[in-house]
Structures are given as C-alpha cells and as structure tokens.
Design brief:
Its EC number is 2.3.-.-. This protein is 32% helix and 26% strand. By secondary structure, it is α+β, with helices and mostly antiparallel strands.
Amino acid sequence: MTTFRSFETERLIIRPTAYEDASFIYELLNTPKWLQFIGDRKVNSLKDAEAYIKNRMMPQLERLGYSNYTIIRKSDGVKLGTCGLYDRVGLDGIDIGFAFLPQYEKNGYAFEAANKIKEAAFSCFNIDQICAITTKENTASQKLLEKLGLKYITMVKIPNDEEELLLYQLNVATQVPVEAPKA
C-alpha cells in the first residue's frame, strides 16, 4: 500500500482524505456555503460520501500523490474542513481549494492549511503554477486567495458549469503572480 504525504502546522494536521472521513465529508458537502459557492455534489447519504471519496478523491491521489486533505485540529482531533490540490478539467495549472465547517471559520485555519498546501505544491509536488476559481459572490474566498499571493486573472467557465468564475493564479516556482493574458 502506498503511503501519501501528510503535513502539519502549529495547530493543524493535514492528511489525505480517507474512507474514515465519510461522515465528515457528508456533513461538509451539505453545508449552506458549500452548496451555494461550490455546488451540490449529490452526496445525500454516508454511502454517497464513501463513493465520492472513492471516485472523486482517491483516483487523483493515487495518480498524482496529492488530492483532497482533511484538516484536523491538533488540540482535540476535531475535523475542521478540507483543503487540497486538484487537477481540474478546464484549468491550466493545479487548482487549490478549501472549505470549512461554518463553526470553524474566521479562526485562521483556512489560511494556515491553504498556505501549507501551497508550500507543498512547489516544495513537495514540483507544481509550477497553482490556480483557483471562485464565484463572484464568494468574497471570503477571494480575500483568502489574495492573502495566499494568488492574483485575479480573468473570468472563466469550466466544463459542465454555466457560471462564470473568477480565475486566480500564482507561479509557485518564483512566487510571482502570473500576468493576465493579452486580449
């Protein structure tokens, strides 16, 4: 069995999402903000959550060595949210994403976890560029992406989604934001 990288910060354990996280994934994917800003993934039961982990998270983890990570608070072992690096169809570069249960927002956990995953992107996984997408309405996500050093580039649409999304990018090799393409 392959062992995949986990990471730690002062307050957090960041480990690949596993089948044991199914009830947590079920809860997270059905929070109002997930449904509003990320979308309904049709995870309506514990069995659906297990299938989501198996079919959406594990294949990329096994193929690339990184995927979705469960964020756990060291002090009490509570699962707070997720953060990850995603090889998303329709985007150039690897997408960094994050989501937290509402009761753990506004405590700095998202920045702490995403910053560690951003560092891992270039120091552990040799990724040259990360990107992120978010809705126009998700200003909290936009602020976090900017705090992480990503720069707004343009509006995009990804396959199977009609909504225009804000695209952010960062060249992680040099930590210089990527310039917007010329029109």
